[in-house]
Amino acid sequence: MTTAKLAPTPHQNSSTDEALEFKVEDNDILAKLCGPLESHIAHLEIAFDTQLIRRGNTIFISNATKQKTIINEILKFLHCEIVSGKRIEISDVDIAIKYFSSNGVQRSKKGLYGDLLNGKDADKEFTKSVEILTKNKPLIPKTDLQNFYLKLLLSKEVIFGIGPAGTGKTYLSIAAGVSQFLKGKVERIILTRPAVEAGEHLGFLPGDIKDKVDPYMQPLYDSLYDFLPSSQVAKMIDSGKIQVIPLAFMRGRTLANSFIILDEAQNTTKIQMKMFLTRLGQNSQMVITGDLTQIDLGKPSESGLLQAFKVLRKLPGIGFAIFESSDIVRHALVEKIVLAYNEKKL
Fold it and tell me: Is 248 a member of any domain?
């Protein structure tokens, strides 16, 4: 149980000099909330340029800060996460700081609301928190937009996840694919990337097709191993239930009963994107992820992802999740790096 109220700042008794008091009855939960060597508390102090003092089962939020209420809300949120069984790390504290400091995600016609549902406000069902189960671990979205994206992944037939690195576009799509497979809703998972991402022509690389493809498909394998035991991944690849192939090998196929993910889609040509989208078969889902600021094609205007966004964004039945730098959930520096590059327009 937690309580929050105004209380005299430690060491002082003035009725006008009050700190906000956050009390946690359970010592184990309090320890997890504060973090190893109280690193979570220190992180909040740095973020808000204030002082948090732990005395017994109580955290006192300094009266000097104007953001006492925000810090209190962050502590309440992290406390609930811990009670629900989640392990809290510094990255989770960063996400909470970002969310509560901006009063949540508000992106009229650009992100969580608006264009994502073809110009209409999000259905209330899409704002409810969602959790999916995989063989290795449950996955809980870390931001409102991730939550919305995951809802799209579990309900729409064609989904676009567009935005900078570190926002969870590919990771969440693979988690959703694994979940749909484990539920028996699809018979196989197909992962693909355009070969330009390899930086070389596949035909000139040594080995068979698997040897040629594996190095630049490794990020997709890494995500699979997060959600399935490595032994099961190997068996599913051998049986064809998981297929990791270059985009060029999709031509001429009709992909039914499948969860299909096209990663790094910004590097598809217009012809390749149309070819890929028309592979959709019965009882299948397609996910297209990419970052329009990282186009490796000779002419960025030739990007199939850019064209698809313009052509399909208002087509019923297709979901769009447009991520921004504020949605990045990797190391806190990643967001700053992305913003720095965006400002220089490199």
Answer: yes
